[in-house]
């Protein structure tokens, strides 16, 4: 009898078409295997077939066995897949019954796993599993319903619940999808540690850029329903040139943004600043809620700043009137995270670009605008026919390029990008970034690029400004940051991108929830009581390198949160 | 990179996409056909004031027209208040939406009748009163529609592209709001129909010799004609069912994530 999961010649099809074609794989007890593939490659279908839950109208052939016992033996999938394995679906909310409390859900799962139904041991076991998945205050949260949980907590609960019955095989479809890379990496690491300790086989599926290899012993690649050898890495164009000379064209000092909430104001960004020379590039790196998006928008006065100074070519953007600012927008443009939602669905792409030209380039005669529209679409790699399409007719990749065309149409000098790859995946993501960097180099654009992916930040920016809870915590040249990051937050983000530890525990804390002191103290291994009383300031630690941490020079693991 | 096929549904004009979505809702299509059938029947049938079958069918279009006029006025007023409140923000937004919300919990048919007493017992006076009361519950949805649109990324992107605010309002916000406001305001039509019939039952809104469904029911009740009363009530019920089915179809024309 072979231990673990054994899959032989598994084929899943619909009608006469095979969607998953003769897949064979093995996952030994305690082994973690990542199954990577682009959208539509058949990953989810494969997992569902293994779990005996193929979609209606889909047939399954081939054999799959867990510890020698058949999971599917050809023909129709078994009605009752039987105990011993669990499928974690793509959305965490789908794994949890919404109208029942976590305690109820765990009681049921633990009873299935033979852990009894006595309430106190069940609650203790549930809290232990939640803590194992990194949930803080687990015993207090057992009374909550899934709808009361944040996305991060929801995923922790879904993973812990899946492990409650003590399965020998866990099939996880895009686990922790949608979470920050740093949080996802820590969560997957915990899941992998659990699998190795308990001897369970763990098969996790996801996109190639989802960071699943952080936890995996082996990586398999699935394309068009077939297992294929590891794809060759594509050549990347050089991102940053040599350091541009000349005085700064964009200067930001102590920028702050706050919003009125009742009688008080809620501060979401403060103390942010940098300087950029013509043609220079800066990456804003941070988790969700770190303030990088607000920062990017405040630069272009798309959200009102409450304090600070933004100077573009000697002009203070925060003090000029609205008409002057509209005129200056010719020189500074922005890319938004979701290109689709940045376009009016009732108007064509050509209308949008022509509208931008009419507003910002009155020197171009109306009769010549269509030529400009065609040229700028070609420049970003789109055919001219896209000008007549509405945004709903375009794919996500085409929409992202259309947004880039709209931004480049008035021939700006500064491009601010707010996570422009967030709706793309796989090859589309890489191709768009390549084109963006080529255009930046060709047009000698000054670039500010906000992202939550450290790998992207290092590739795009000549310097990286790391944001956390609405404050900058580290500013360093991209060349030195990978080997000489000082802030624990920066190191955790780099670790997540490199698929190696140490990771930060817990979920990102939004700036509005930080009540004095360092916003990382609840998650930081170096935290000491002093961190709660004083906000650290950016201090120089090397040439062009500044860090905001009281104990950046303390070795890891020497903290005392008190 | 290939561009999506021009034959793909997404590349159709927004109006054709909306019609496809509407017609895919079978109850909505049936409801629309029923209302159109009623209008055609009223034109073809003889004006027989004593037939319990013909009379409600002939008078129903007048009730529907009166309700439509009142609902349209009400939706326009509610939309104007909603747009102004969303644009102005601050105390005006809170006061306008708060007041409309509080007033809309009043018994609206009775308020409309009281209003008709003030504006005049004839049809125009009644319509003004009905428009005023059906506008109240529509202010909240209209405000929410505009608020939601103003927060959309397309508005920020238009600002970033240098488009002046007035042009953003006329070229992007209002055209996108129109369909949503129609969906959000559609319940005002059956509501106005019910109020008009209730008022007609009490003797309001009659125009010369022509009656509405409400006045037909009122006369039938006064003269002890249960067959006519039941027949008119059945036509009213069918009409309300058809209108609500059409409203469901209108809701389907707006993408799920954009519904008011």
TrEMBL record, chain A:
Domain ABC transporter: from-to ranges: 5-249, 250-494
SMART domains: AAA (SM00382)
UniProtKB keywords: ATP-binding, Nucleotide-binding, Transport
A Pfam family annotated for this UniProt entry: ABC_tran
An MF annotation (GO) of this entry: ATP binding
PANTHER family in the cross-refs: D,D-DIPEPTIDE TRANSPORT ATP-BINDING PROTEIN DDPF-RELATED (PTHR43776:SF7), TRANSPORT ATP-BINDING PROTEIN (PTHR43776)
Stated family: Belongs to the ABC transporter superfamily.
Name of the protein: ABC transporter ATP-binding protein
Automatic annotation (TrEMBL), chain B:
ABC transmembrane type-1 domain mapped to chain residues: 60-247
Membrane topology: Multi-pass membrane protein
Keywords on record: Cell membrane, Membrane, Peptide transport, Protein transport, Transmembrane, Transmembrane helix, Transport
PROSITE patterns documented for this protein: ABC_TM1
Transmembrane region(s): 28-45, 65-92, 99-119, 125-145, 193-214, 226-243
Gene3D superfamilies listed in its UniProt record: MetI-like
Coiled coil, from the record: none
Subcellular location: Cell membrane
Similarity annotation: Belongs to the binding-protein-dependent transport system permease family.
Protein name from the UniProt record: ABC transporter permease subunit
Originating organism: Azospirillum oleiclasticum
Taxonomic placement: Bacteria, Pseudomonadati, Pseudomonadota, Alphaproteobacteria, Rhodospirillales
